Amino acid sequence: MSLSCNTTVSITDLHSLLECKLVKFSQVAADLKQFCLYKVQHNPLLTRVTSSRNPFRPQKVCSFW
């Protein structure tokens, strides 16, 4: 089927055209929650950043007085 020849395409035709796999919203939400919980340990906004790794820390002034 060509989209240029047929201007009225149903949703089921589009799904078959794109070969989309429909997933329940509850499953998507559970997968997203699992992904977020897995990645939380690497998120610097949620975990503390050590002062040695913090690029925004105040620079120390070295003086030889």
Strand content: under 5%
Number of helices: 2
Outline type: elongated
The major pleated sheet works out as:
none
What Rg is obtained from the alpha carbons, in whole angstroms?
26 Å
Low-pLDDT sequence parts: none
Mean pLDDT: 77
What is the terminal separation in angstroms? Answer: 83 Å
Please describe what this structure looks like.
The protein is 35% helix and 0% strand. It has 65 residues and is mainly α. The chain has a domain at 23-53. The N and C termini lie far apart (83 Å). The mean pLDDT is 77.
Features:
single chain; 65 residues; mainly alpha; 2 helices; 35% helix; elongated
Short description:
By secondary structure, the protein is an all-alpha fold. It is built from 2 helices and no strands.
Ordered list of secondary-structure elements with their pairings:
Blueprint: H1 11-18, H2 25-39
